[in-house]
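ok so I'm stuck.
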Amino acid sequence: MKHFFCAALLLGSSQTLAETLFVTLEKDNALAVVDPIEGKLLQTVPVGQRPRGIVMAEDGKHLYLAASDDDTIQIVDTETFRVVGTLPSGEDPETFAIGPEGKRLYVSNEDDSLVTAIDIASAKAIKRIPVGVEPEPVAVSPDNKWVACASEATNMVHWIARESLQVVDNTLVDPRPRGLTFTADSRQLWASSELGGTVSVIDAATRKIVKTLKFEISGVTDDKIQPVGIAIDKERKWAFVALGPANRVALVNAQTLEVEDYFLVGQRVWNLAFSPDQKRLYTTNGVSNDISIIDLEDMKVSKSIGVGRYPWGVAVKP
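replied:
not stuck anymore, here's the structure
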Protein backbone atom coordinates (compact mmCIF):
# COMPACT_ATOMS: atom_id res chain seq x y z
CA MET A 1 0.00 0.00 0.00
CA LYS A 2 2.91 2.32 -0.66
CA HIS A 3 2.46 2.94 -4.35
CA PHE A 4 -0.50 5.25 -4.79
CA PHE A 5 0.92 8.66 -3.88
CA CYS A 6 3.42 9.64 -6.54
CA ALA A 7 3.46 13.44 -6.71
CA ALA A 8 6.69 15.05 -5.49
CA LEU A 9 6.80 17.94 -3.04
CA LEU A 10 9.32 20.47 -4.30
CA LEU A 11 11.12 22.61 -1.75
CA GLY A 12 12.55 25.96 -2.75
CA SER A 13 16.21 26.72 -2.36
CA SER A 14 15.39 29.20 0.41
CA GLN A 15 14.18 26.28 2.55
CA THR A 16 10.84 27.93 3.18
CA LEU A 17 8.11 25.86 4.78
CA ALA A 18 6.99 22.97 2.62
CA GLU A 19 3.48 23.60 3.88
CA THR A 20 1.66 25.24 6.75
CA LEU A 21 -1.30 23.87 8.67
CA PHE A 22 -4.05 26.06 10.08
CA VAL A 23 -6.14 24.45 12.82
CA THR A 24 -9.24 25.96 14.44
CA LEU A 25 -9.27 25.69 18.24
CA GLU A 26 -12.89 25.68 19.28
CA LYS A 27 -12.39 26.28 23.03
CA ASP A 28 -9.48 28.73 22.68
CA ASN A 29 -11.23 30.97 20.14
CA ALA A 30 -7.99 30.78 18.23
CA LEU A 31 -6.20 29.53 15.14
CA ALA A 32 -3.10 27.35 15.49
CA VAL A 33 -0.36 27.75 12.86
CA VAL A 34 1.72 24.58 12.53
CA ASP A 35 4.83 23.48 10.64
CA PRO A 36 4.04 19.77 10.15
CA ILE A 37 7.44 18.89 8.69
CA GLU A 38 9.34 20.12 11.74
CA GLY A 39 6.50 19.07 14.00
CA LYS A 40 6.18 22.50 15.62
CA LEU A 41 3.38 24.77 16.72
CA LEU A 42 4.54 28.11 15.30
CA GLN A 43 1.93 30.50 16.59
CA THR A 44 -1.56 30.75 18.07
CA VAL A 45 -3.69 33.58 16.71
CA PRO A 46 -6.89 34.95 18.31
CA VAL A 47 -9.94 34.75 16.04
CA GLY A 48 -13.71 34.81 16.55
CA GLN A 49 -15.77 32.83 19.01
CA ARG A 50 -16.06 29.04 18.65
CA PRO A 51 -14.19 28.65 15.35
CA ARG A 52 -14.95 25.39 13.55
CA GLY A 53 -15.07 25.00 9.76
CA ILE A 54 -12.06 26.24 7.81
CA VAL A 55 -11.28 26.36 4.07
CA MET A 56 -8.19 27.57 2.20
CA ALA A 57 -8.63 29.88 -0.79
CA GLU A 58 -7.33 28.45 -4.05
CA ASP A 59 -4.46 30.94 -4.25
CA GLY A 60 -3.40 30.21 -0.66
CA LYS A 61 -3.39 33.91 0.25
CA HIS A 62 -6.45 33.77 2.45
CA LEU A 63 -8.39 31.25 4.44
CA TYR A 64 -11.97 31.36 5.57
CA LEU A 65 -13.11 30.19 8.99
CA ALA A 66 -16.52 29.93 10.60
CA ALA A 67 -16.72 31.88 13.86
CA SER A 68 -19.89 30.10 14.88
CA ASP A 69 -20.84 32.16 17.94
CA ASP A 70 -20.11 35.42 16.12
CA ASP A 71 -22.41 34.46 13.22
CA THR A 72 -19.79 35.26 10.60
CA ILE A 73 -17.15 33.84 8.28
CA GLN A 74 -13.80 35.48 8.94
CA ILE A 75 -11.17 36.03 6.25
CA VAL A 76 -7.60 35.48 7.47
CA ASP A 77 -4.43 36.58 5.66
CA THR A 78 -2.16 33.51 5.54
CA GLU A 79 1.02 35.59 5.67
CA THR A 80 0.22 37.98 8.53
CA PHE A 81 -2.32 35.65 10.23
CA ARG A 82 -4.61 38.63 10.75
CA VAL A 83 -8.36 38.75 10.24
CA VAL A 84 -8.78 41.07 7.25
CA GLY A 85 -12.49 40.80 6.55
CA THR A 86 -15.77 39.01 7.13
CA LEU A 87 -18.51 37.42 5.05
CA PRO A 88 -22.25 37.37 5.87
CA SER A 89 -22.77 33.75 6.83
CA GLY A 90 -26.16 33.85 8.52
CA GLU A 91 -26.69 32.53 12.04
CA ASP A 92 -24.52 29.85 13.65
CA PRO A 93 -22.24 28.88 10.75
CA GLU A 94 -20.39 25.64 11.46
CA THR A 95 -19.17 24.12 8.23
CA PHE A 96 -18.99 25.34 4.67
CA ALA A 97 -17.46 24.60 1.30
CA ILE A 98 -15.96 26.66 -1.51
CA GLY A 99 -16.92 26.14 -5.14
CA PRO A 100 -14.22 24.86 -7.50
CA GLU A 101 -14.15 28.22 -9.27
CA GLY A 102 -13.25 29.88 -5.97
CA LYS A 103 -15.99 32.50 -6.21
CA ARG A 104 -18.66 31.23 -3.83
CA LEU A 105 -18.95 29.83 -0.34
CA TYR A 106 -21.83 27.64 0.77
CA VAL A 107 -22.47 27.76 4.50
CA SER A 108 -24.75 25.62 6.67
CA ASN A 109 -26.88 27.51 9.21
CA GLU A 110 -27.83 24.90 11.76
CA ASP A 111 -30.31 26.96 13.79
CA ASP A 112 -32.25 28.19 10.75
CA SER A 113 -32.30 25.02 8.59
CA LEU A 114 -30.68 26.93 5.73
CA VAL A 115 -27.69 26.90 3.41
CA THR A 116 -26.38 30.38 2.61
CA ALA A 117 -24.66 30.94 -0.74
CA ILE A 118 -22.14 33.80 -0.54
CA ASP A 119 -20.45 35.69 -3.37
CA ILE A 120 -16.91 36.21 -2.09
CA ALA A 121 -15.97 39.21 -4.26
CA SER A 122 -18.99 41.31 -3.25
CA ALA A 123 -19.16 39.85 0.28
CA LYS A 124 -22.89 39.38 -0.13
CA ALA A 125 -25.29 36.52 0.49
CA ILE A 126 -26.90 35.76 -2.86
CA LYS A 127 -29.40 33.15 -1.68
CA ARG A 128 -30.54 31.31 1.43
CA ILE A 129 -31.72 27.81 0.59
CA PRO A 130 -34.15 25.93 2.90
CA VAL A 131 -32.96 22.41 3.75
CA GLY A 132 -33.63 19.89 6.53
CA VAL A 133 -33.38 20.35 10.28
CA GLU A 134 -29.92 21.08 11.72
CA PRO A 135 -27.83 21.14 8.54
CA GLU A 136 -24.10 20.76 9.09
CA PRO A 137 -21.75 19.24 6.46
CA VAL A 138 -21.56 20.88 3.03
CA ALA A 139 -19.64 19.77 -0.07
CA VAL A 140 -19.41 21.03 -3.66
CA SER A 141 -18.77 18.58 -6.49
CA PRO A 142 -15.53 19.25 -8.41
CA ASP A 143 -17.54 19.53 -11.65
CA ASN A 144 -19.55 22.34 -9.97
CA LYS A 145 -22.86 20.62 -10.66
CA TRP A 146 -23.91 19.94 -7.07
CA VAL A 147 -23.88 21.56 -3.68
CA ALA A 148 -24.65 18.82 -1.18
CA CYS A 149 -25.71 19.45 2.40
CA ALA A 150 -26.71 16.95 5.08
CA SER A 151 -29.12 17.66 7.92
CA GLU A 152 -28.39 15.99 11.24
CA ALA A 153 -31.96 15.78 12.53
CA THR A 154 -33.64 14.95 9.21
CA ASN A 155 -30.99 12.32 8.36
CA MET A 156 -30.90 13.37 4.73
CA VAL A 157 -28.44 14.52 2.11
CA HIS A 158 -29.97 17.42 0.18
CA TRP A 159 -28.87 17.81 -3.45
CA ILE A 160 -28.81 21.48 -4.45
CA ALA A 161 -28.39 22.17 -8.15
CA ARG A 162 -25.52 24.64 -8.54
CA GLU A 163 -27.19 26.59 -11.37
CA SER A 164 -30.61 27.11 -9.77
CA LEU A 165 -29.55 26.93 -6.11
CA GLN A 166 -32.61 24.83 -5.39
CA VAL A 167 -32.95 21.43 -3.72
CA VAL A 168 -33.81 18.96 -6.46
CA ASP A 169 -33.39 15.63 -4.64
CA ASN A 170 -32.82 14.08 -1.22
CA THR A 171 -31.11 10.89 -0.09
CA LEU A 172 -32.01 9.28 3.23
CA VAL A 173 -28.92 8.20 5.19
CA ASP A 174 -28.24 6.77 8.65
CA PRO A 175 -28.69 8.91 11.79
CA ARG A 176 -26.81 12.17 12.35
CA PRO A 177 -24.80 12.74 9.17
CA ARG A 178 -21.65 14.73 10.00
CA GLY A 179 -19.32 14.57 7.00
CA LEU A 180 -19.65 14.87 3.21
CA THR A 181 -16.94 14.43 0.58
CA PHE A 182 -17.17 14.12 -3.20
CA THR A 183 -14.68 12.01 -5.08
CA ALA A 184 -12.39 13.96 -7.42
CA ASP A 185 -14.27 12.65 -10.47
CA SER A 186 -17.59 13.89 -8.99
CA ARG A 187 -19.15 10.45 -9.46
CA GLN A 188 -19.62 9.63 -5.78
CA LEU A 189 -20.56 11.43 -2.59
CA TRP A 190 -19.51 9.83 0.70
CA ALA A 191 -21.63 10.68 3.74
CA SER A 192 -20.66 9.74 7.30
CA SER A 193 -23.33 9.07 9.95
CA GLU A 194 -22.09 9.70 13.46
CA LEU A 195 -24.85 7.88 15.38
CA GLY A 196 -25.38 5.25 12.69
CA GLY A 197 -21.71 4.32 12.80
CA THR A 198 -21.65 4.10 9.00
CA VAL A 199 -20.59 5.79 5.78
CA SER A 200 -22.99 5.86 2.82
CA VAL A 201 -21.38 5.80 -0.62
CA ILE A 202 -23.82 7.56 -2.95
CA ASP A 203 -23.87 7.53 -6.74
CA ALA A 204 -24.10 11.19 -7.80
CA ALA A 205 -25.88 10.41 -11.07
CA THR A 206 -28.78 8.59 -9.41
CA ARG A 207 -28.47 9.97 -5.84
CA LYS A 208 -28.85 6.36 -4.66
CA ILE A 209 -26.71 4.60 -2.07
CA VAL A 210 -24.46 1.98 -3.67
CA LYS A 211 -22.97 0.70 -0.41
CA THR A 212 -23.12 1.35 3.30
CA LEU A 213 -19.80 0.87 5.08
CA LYS A 214 -19.65 -0.37 8.67
CA PHE A 215 -16.64 -0.43 10.96
CA GLU A 216 -15.54 -3.05 13.48
CA ILE A 217 -12.54 -2.50 15.75
CA SER A 218 -11.30 -5.12 18.15
CA GLY A 219 -11.66 -3.90 21.74
CA VAL A 220 -13.79 -0.86 20.79
CA THR A 221 -17.54 -0.90 21.43
CA ASP A 222 -19.92 0.11 18.65
CA ASP A 223 -21.10 3.22 20.50
CA LYS A 224 -17.56 4.64 20.31
CA ILE A 225 -17.38 4.26 16.52
CA GLN A 226 -18.76 7.58 15.30
CA PRO A 227 -17.71 8.47 11.72
CA VAL A 228 -17.23 12.16 11.02
CA GLY A 229 -14.60 13.63 8.65
CA ILE A 230 -13.77 11.92 5.33
CA ALA A 231 -10.81 12.37 2.95
CA ILE A 232 -10.50 10.60 -0.43
CA ASP A 233 -7.36 10.70 -2.57
CA LYS A 234 -7.43 12.24 -6.03
CA GLU A 235 -7.27 8.91 -7.84
CA ARG A 236 -10.11 7.42 -5.74
CA LYS A 237 -7.91 4.56 -4.60
CA TRP A 238 -8.13 5.16 -0.86
CA ALA A 239 -10.53 6.84 1.50
CA PHE A 240 -9.92 7.76 5.12
CA VAL A 241 -12.68 8.12 7.71
CA ALA A 242 -12.28 9.75 11.13
CA LEU A 243 -14.10 7.64 13.72
CA GLY A 244 -14.49 10.12 16.57
CA PRO A 245 -14.19 8.66 20.10
CA ALA A 246 -12.92 5.36 18.66
CA ASN A 247 -9.65 7.33 18.29
CA ARG A 248 -9.08 5.69 14.92
CA VAL A 249 -8.96 6.63 11.25
CA ALA A 250 -10.28 3.91 8.96
CA LEU A 251 -8.46 3.05 5.73
CA VAL A 252 -10.98 2.11 3.03
CA ASN A 253 -10.23 0.75 -0.42
CA ALA A 254 -12.23 3.24 -2.49
CA GLN A 255 -12.49 0.84 -5.44
CA THR A 256 -13.69 -2.30 -3.64
CA LEU A 257 -15.41 -0.30 -0.86
CA GLU A 258 -13.91 -2.55 1.79
CA VAL A 259 -12.35 -1.44 5.08
CA GLU A 260 -8.72 -2.58 5.11
CA ASP A 261 -7.11 -1.14 8.26
CA TYR A 262 -7.28 1.37 11.10
CA PHE A 263 -4.80 3.96 12.36
CA LEU A 264 -4.70 4.76 16.09
CA VAL A 265 -4.55 8.55 16.47
CA GLY A 266 -5.44 11.05 19.22
CA GLN A 267 -8.62 11.23 21.23
CA ARG A 268 -11.90 12.21 19.55
CA VAL A 269 -10.63 12.57 15.99
CA TRP A 270 -12.76 15.05 14.07
CA ASN A 271 -11.50 16.13 10.68
CA LEU A 272 -8.87 15.26 8.08
CA ALA A 273 -6.74 16.97 5.43
CA PHE A 274 -4.10 15.77 2.98
CA SER A 275 -0.73 17.37 2.47
CA PRO A 276 -0.45 18.94 -1.02
CA ASP A 277 1.42 15.89 -2.37
CA GLN A 278 -0.98 13.51 -0.57
CA LYS A 279 1.91 11.76 1.17
CA ARG A 280 0.60 12.71 4.60
CA LEU A 281 -2.80 12.91 6.25
CA TYR A 282 -3.45 15.32 9.11
CA THR A 283 -6.09 14.68 11.78
CA THR A 284 -7.58 16.99 14.41
CA ASN A 285 -8.05 15.28 17.77
CA GLY A 286 -10.44 17.31 19.92
CA VAL A 287 -10.08 15.73 23.35
CA SER A 288 -6.32 15.14 23.33
CA ASN A 289 -5.78 18.71 22.05
CA ASP A 290 -3.39 17.67 19.29
CA ILE A 291 -3.11 16.71 15.66
CA SER A 292 -1.78 13.43 14.32
CA ILE A 293 0.28 12.98 11.16
CA ILE A 294 -0.22 9.75 9.21
CA ASP A 295 2.63 8.91 6.83
CA LEU A 296 0.85 7.51 3.78
CA GLU A 297 3.98 6.01 2.24
CA ASP A 298 4.79 3.93 5.31
CA MET A 299 1.12 3.68 6.30
CA LYS A 300 1.71 4.56 9.94
CA VAL A 301 1.16 7.41 12.36
CA SER A 302 4.47 9.26 12.45
CA LYS A 303 3.94 11.94 15.10
CA SER A 304 1.52 14.07 17.08
CA ILE A 305 1.70 17.82 17.75
CA GLY A 306 -0.02 19.65 20.60
CA VAL A 307 -1.94 22.65 19.25
CA GLY A 308 -4.40 23.93 21.87
CA ARG A 309 -7.86 23.27 23.23
CA TYR A 310 -10.31 21.31 21.11
CA PRO A 311 -8.85 21.37 17.60
CA TRP A 312 -11.67 20.93 15.10
CA GLY A 313 -10.99 22.00 11.51
CA VAL A 314 -7.76 21.88 9.50
CA ALA A 315 -6.65 23.53 6.26
CA VAL A 316 -3.32 23.24 4.45
CA LYS A 317 -1.37 25.97 2.68
CA PRO A 318 1.16 24.59 0.15
